[in-house]
Amino acid sequence: MMSNVAVAAPAKTNSKATVLFASLIGTTIEFFDFYIYATAAVLVFPQLFFPSSDASSAILQSLATFAIAFFARPVGSALFGHFGDRIGRKATLVAALLTMGVSTVAIGLLPTYAQIGVVAPLLLALCRFGQGLGLGGEWGGAVLLATENAPPGKRAWYGMFPQLGAPIGFLMAGGSFLLLGEFLSEADFFAWGWRVPFLASTVLVLVGLFVRLKIHETPVFQATLDKHEQVKVPMITVFKDHGKMLFLGTCIALATFVLFYLVTVFALTWGTTSLGYSREHFLILQLIAILFFAAFIPVSALLADRHGRKITLSIISLAIAVFGLFMAPLLNSGTDTGVLAFLCIGLALMGLTYGPIGTILSELFPTNVRYTGASLTFNLAGIFGASLAPYIAMWLAKTYSLQAVGYYLAAAALITLLAVLVTHETKNQQLDN
User: Fold this and answer.
1) Which of 10, 39, 97, 224 has a CA 20 to 30 Å removed from the CA of 389?
2) Per-residue pLDDT for 417 more than 90?
3) Cβ atoms of 370 and 83 closer than 8 Å
């Protein structure tokens, strides 16, 4: 006689390789898209979209559009975080990747100021907003995909894989502009060559989508779905019940953003204007230094898993503050040795602070609002720490001196240090809450 008892289907699980590759490939694509804009905002857009008799004014206008994405990112965090905490991580990650990809490809198709006038920078700003919207939803989901699938004691190690997408994306972005500069004349580069990296993003997005569509929901969030523990409006719950963690998480990520965009976007601007470096020469120095960024991400993740998040980030934040006090002589030396030392030290510190930051921010929030909470903290820090950092740094350097930029970085690092010190240790905290 046949039994009528239903047998539950085994839960679908993701293999380690699939999880880590899916979290890495998505952020690599996202950051490639983001960095080609950052590079073009310094090298291309001031001439093609913001013509002005004053070169410094054109650069500042271009950097202002660079900032737009950081204001769009919290909007993306709220939008994609809502569906990520209500429906699931997988579908939301796919939608975020598409939003970022379409916006980036559209930039590569835009007419310039010479062709359509003032509409050109407006369209550029709109596409930049789309980039920020997508990245606002991408990063948090990628980190959760990794950390919510991590075995005990290895959350920071798993959580650093999405972070590795940043240096890889930067290498691809910087390398693409370097190759274009090598093989194209200046006229061809400004006529059409600068568009190639934006259009090439199409292929990368398709690869990312293929991988993302193969993953299953994370077991931690699947348990939340099975128990019907989702909240109606995750963003409201985050602000109402987890406002303290939102504030502290934003401060914890502050120095990370200020450091990175000073060592990349501001340094590229300063190097190719005040120091007289060619575009290709300075990009080569940055690409060498990015290897230090990539190398130190796993180092800090291992330290965070072994010794805890607080002690690891506290020491790193203090080191960033010290670097800020002494960075000006290195960068302003105008020599390859000094500039490369500035870039390598700065990006090594960036790797150290960036490796565990995603894991720490995700651990501050319970599962049913983790996507929204982690994304909002990271992207609010982007507004305060990165959106205007190149602009503020350029203003400080021109108005006062390069040393003032170092003080700006040191102040951000001290804010992060204080926030880390008053936040509880999350190393042994369970995520199924």
Assistant:
1) 97
2) yes
3) no
